[in-house]
Amino acid sequence: MTELRIAVLGVGMMGAFHVDALTKRIRGAKVTVISDYFPEKAKEVADAIGARVVDDPIEAINDAEVDAVLIASPGAVHDVQVNACLDAGKPVLCEKPLTTDIASSRVIVEKEKSLGKELIQVGFMRRFDPEYVALHQLIVSGGLGNPLMVHCTHRNPAVPDHFNSEFMIRDSVVHEVDVTRFLLGEEIVSVQVIKGVATSAAPAGTNDPMLVVFETESGRIVTDEIYVRTGVAYEVRTEVVGEQGSATIGLDQNLQVKRTDGSWGGQITPGFVERFGQAYDIELQRWVDAAKQGTIDGPGAWDGYAAVAVCEAGVKAVRSGRKEYVQLAGIALPVEEEPIPDIRAPDLIGDRP
Ligand SMILES: NC(=O)c1ccc[n+]([C@@H]2O[C@H](COP(=O)([O-])OP(=O)(O)OC[C@H]3O[C@@H](n4cnc5c(N)ncnc54)[C@H](O)[C@@H]3O)[C@@H](O)[C@H]2O)c1
Fold first, then answer.
1. Most buried one in 70, 95, 275, 289, CB count within 10 A?
2. Could you list the residue range(s) of the whole structural domain that residue 55 is in?
């Protein structure tokens, strides 16, 4: 196969971005079919690249001129579309989330397993970002000794009002979920969400920023500051603290300028496209190359399922204010923790003056 013929489902922000990359920068790929809930949107994108519009996304998946599928529709319809790709036996790059609930993601994992080949890649592009790749290599090569803790910072300049506390977990923290699993090579078993003072830029009832704490299978702690209305820029940092050193990525130190007026500084990437543009291109190129061989080259269905399970626990933790355990197949849930007995002297118990 010289050119992989691709159907893109959903050409909103991400889908249109991927179509542009597949058309201009990715080798060996051709977008042949576009499908979107709004046919006029699909037509506009399709006309610009000489592709066909197929209104029904399932028909688009099964189209004879389609070898592989890129899903960039809203998460709520991923379940149906990914299942249709499996039924058609076509490789698929599905933007996160794999689905929007644990049960349907699990069914997809099992269904793919029963086919005996990996067809589903999930769009966790940070795994292709050169800085994350270097950090991962440093860890697996033993360069930091045993990794003990990870500290993440995820800040956006601004987001629409529908980014409430729960959406911040599902849409933003989900990337740190995958980063944690990628860097440490183990599952996350619990999530706690600590809510502090909210920025006045947040709508009423939204806790922005929040501190999210993951605990992994081996007991490592990961913290993630999620703050999506900073008004500043797009800042994503990750620090891994090991027994023999620590390493940080995302420090915006690539270009520091000193000026004649005595000021110095650099530029922070304004948005996620500027920060992760290269990662998306690498992700797409590797997916295209693998899909031609009928397989994937990146995070798969299990990774998508695990991320959904952790985010479910995260949403529960936002609501309960407690540590919530991740319901993931093969991961034992801990025995309910005993409450800590109050050992203060009786006269110290009671209201503070
Ligand atoms: N990997 C990342 O960094 C990243 C970043 C942003 C968004 N995403 C993910 O990409 C997906 C799309 O996000 P977006 O920001 O582009 O959203 P968007 O709302 O801009 O675009 C979604 C598009 O899908 C279309 N659509 C709706 N129902 C459809 C259906 N049944 N079939 C086909 N198309 C349909 C909509 O009309 C719209 O054009 C989401 O799953 C989102 O979580 C990933």
1. 70
2. 4-125+276-299
Is the CB of 17 inside a 6 Å radius of any atom of ligand 1? no
Mutate to test the pocket of ligand 1, among 73, 132, 173, 234 (most ligand atoms within 8 A of CB): 73
- pLDDT computed for residue 254 by the predictor: 66
pTM (2 decimals)? 0.93
Report CA(123)–ligand 1 centroid distance (Å).
12
Clarify whether residues 92 and 160 are in a common domain: no
pLDDT (mean) for 114-128: 98
Question: Is the CB of 38 inside a 6 Å radius of any atom of ligand 1?
Answer: yes
Q: How far is the CA of 280 from the centre of ligand 1 (A)?
A: 15
Instruction: State whether 314 and 289 are in the same domain.
Output: no
Residues 144 and 260 in one domain: yes
Same domain? For 216 and 154 the reply is: yes
Q: Are residues 187 and 286 in the same domain?
A: no
| Distance of alpha carbon 194 from alpha carbon 213, whole angstroms | 8
Comparing 20-24, 182-186, 257-261, which segment has the lowest mean pLDDT?
257-261
Is the shortest distance between the CB of 99 and ligand 1 below 6 Å? Answer: no
CB of 12 closer than 6 angstroms to any ligand 1 atom:
yes
User: What residues form DSSP beta bridges with 204?
Assistant: none
**Is residue 349 a part of any domain in this protein?**
no
Give CB contacts under 8 A, 24+ apart, made by 319-324: 319/166, 321/193, 321/195, 322/192, 323/190, 323/191, 323/192, 323/215, 324/190, 324/191, 324/192
